[in-house]
Amino acid sequence: MSLLKTQELSVYYGDLQALTHIQIEVEERELTTIVGANASGKSTLINTISGILRQRSGTITFENQRIEHLAPHHRVDIGIIQIPEGRLLFPDMSVEENLEMGAYSPKARKEKKKNLERVYAILPRLKERRLQRAGSLSGGEQQMCAIGRSLMAMPKLLMLDEPSLGLAPIVVQEMFETIRMIQKEGTTILLIEQNVQFALEMAHRGFVLENGRITLKGTGAELLQNDHLKKAYLGI
Q: How much is the pTM?
């Protein structure tokens, strides 16, 4: 069953069209990825889904309800949570204080203690660092803190924007294993990722975004075998 669907979604920056007639579906409890080159429109798409940007035309449906009229904080209330590129932690606050900031909605505040225990169980390194300033963490630890903060919000749909950016390969592998575990526990994932190989190997299905348009779609395995994708993004 589709948790999220966009239809004929078009987005502009002034007179410049960034997305053209985007149609994607994100199935419940699956990991869906969107891959593409820099400036192809990937971040624009998830910023529009989260309400940071507004579409010029088209619709966004979440749990069979139209949501394009909702403000960003109301989209958080219904379970759409975004981890932005660059993590955007509060560097002078402790790890635990950053995590608690994720419990923004009334529902999440009620479950804060239980969710904090869950985050520490999934990401035990954060428990070890819970009193440490977030700004003093390594890049990989900061990304894990951002993931933990998002889980505190009790997401139905978790959107991650380039989570591997700037991280060492061994840290990237650990992070992707964590994302996969979160999905297997029941959270629907929409992943924007520069590491095309990793992203498609993990994904149930994927979309290729080029110059603001969806040019390919299929299962992760199907896309990895696509000749155009292999040549353009994998150097094969």
A: 0.94
